[in-house]
Amino acid sequence: MESVLSKYENQVTIFADYLEEFPDTDELVWILGKQHLLKTEKSKLLSDISARLWFTYRRKFSPIGGTGPSSDAGWGCMLRCGQMMLAQALICRHLGRDWNWEKQKEQPKEYQRILQCFLDRKDCCYSIHQMAQMGVGEGKSIGEWFGPNTVAQVLKKLALFDEWNSLAVYVSMDNTVVIEDIKKMCHTLPLSAETAAESPPESLNASTQSKGPSACSPAWKPLLLIVPLRLGINQINPVYVDAFKECFKMPQSLGALGGKPNNAYYFIGFLGDELIFLDPHTTQNFVDTEENGTVDDQTFHCLQPPQRMNILNLDPSVALGFFCKEEKDFDSWCSLVQKEILKENLRMFELVQKHPSHWPPFVPPAKPEVTTTGAEFIDSTEQLEEFDLEEDFEILSI
User: Fold this and answer.
1) Is residue 318, in this structure, part of any structural domain at all?
2) Alpha-carbon distances of 233 from 5, 145, 151, 239, 244, rounded to whole Å
3) Which of 173, 240, 249, 273 could disulfide-link 231, Cβ–Cβ 3.0 to 4.6 Å?
């Protein structure tokens, strides 16, 4: 125990030394919609970054598909970044953006349950196993590198099986976000109220239990909004830099997926023209639940120095993420986009009220007839493969 604590203290010291290397500036550091003044709030900045769930390469998990790889080292970095973005959405969904993590401090049951959604097991709803296998339906072989848009499409499909978090996942097409379609999707009731009769898991609190499908018409299904973009040909066009940075200031921000070809990072903020990111390129051993049903979370938080890169070195293929827990959050996001993004002559993306007439009709995605609750996930690869064939006309290539 002492060695673990001393190692942690060393990492904090390294982090503090690294922060000294930041330029002596009065500029603000923005992390997922929150600002930190570098000169006076270094410890808060450290705490905010280390609180993000950090998913990296893992080894020694059960082979994917039974006979596939038992490590994702070298190919799973974008999948891990997608997990980090989704995990941040779930943290905001259940614990709030201001929730903070402290080492060896007992955390809410929702936190443990969120973590268990991402363990490297085939029965965990957002595991590397489920993401890799769902990617087959997107034309990606198991062990093949994903791009930002492919990860977004995979998360959209997997979320349909996750009743506990009950997210509406919208992935924009053709650089266009359609307000009408999002409102239609987030106001859609489940097809059946039968699941309301099931006993909710013990880890659900009273407020979550009261939100079953049969309680009453829910005003809003929490929204995970992903906007895949291509911001240039071979490198990012400088004209998009200010708008891209503006997205990290929005309270709804979940950061961005991107990086360099075959080298993905999860971008969580910026200082000046440098992006701050979490790097999944560390290989750790598989971690499973312990006998008491909890997960040792020490390897799921990055206590190392935050990494940075100049925004102009970013590959132009990216995906922005936003989370709108309530309808008013989405309305506020639309206003911010109108004010900060659409003011540019060369817009990073479009926000329109009505569904474009030349597009196929919008049909909110519906879950197949498979019953699952939270981290308990469908155990049948055949059902996943069948679902891949059925879904989804909205796949796009960027």
Assistant:
1) yes
2) 47, 20, 21, 13, 16
3) 240
Tell me which amino acid residue 251 is.
P
Q: How many CB atoms lie within 10 A of CB 162?
A: 22
Catalytic site includes residue 279: yes
User: How high is the pLDDT of residue 242?
Assistant: 94
Output the pTM of the full model. Answer: 0.82
Q: Does residue 355 carry a catalytic annotation?
A: no
**Does any domain span residue 339?**
yes
Report angle CA 356, 358, 364 to the nearest 5 degrees.
60
Catalytic-labelled residue, pool 187, 281, 301, 355: 281
CA distances from 91 to 51, 99, 386 (A): 10, 8, 31
Note if 94 is an active site residue.
no
| Percent residues over pLDDT 70 in the chain | 78
Q: Which residues neighbour 158 within 8 Å (Cβ) at sequence distance 6 or greater?
A: 125, 126, 130, 131, 134
Domain count, the chain: 1
Q: Which of 279, 302, 324, 329 is catalytic?
A: 279
In a domain, 379, yes or no: no
DSSP 43-55: HHHHHHHHTSB--
Tell me which residues of the chain have a pLDDT lower than 70: 1-25, 188-218, 368-398
Give CA–CA dist 147/315, Å, rounded.
11
Q: What is the pLDDT of residue 371?
A: 43
- Domain of residue 233 covers 26-187+219-352
The pairs formed by 42-50 with CB atoms below 8 angstroms and a separation of 24 or more are: 42/16, 45/19, 46/12, 46/15, 46/16, 46/19, 47/100, 48/100, 49/268, 49/276, 49/278, 49/302, 49/306, 50/101, 50/301, 50/302, 50/303
Q: Say what the pLDDT of residue 295 is.
A: 87
Q: Which residue is catalytic, options 36, 48, 72, 77? A: 77
Name the residue with tokens 């379609």: 181
Domain membership flag for residue 235: yes
The token pair that represents 345 in the structure block: 């002559």
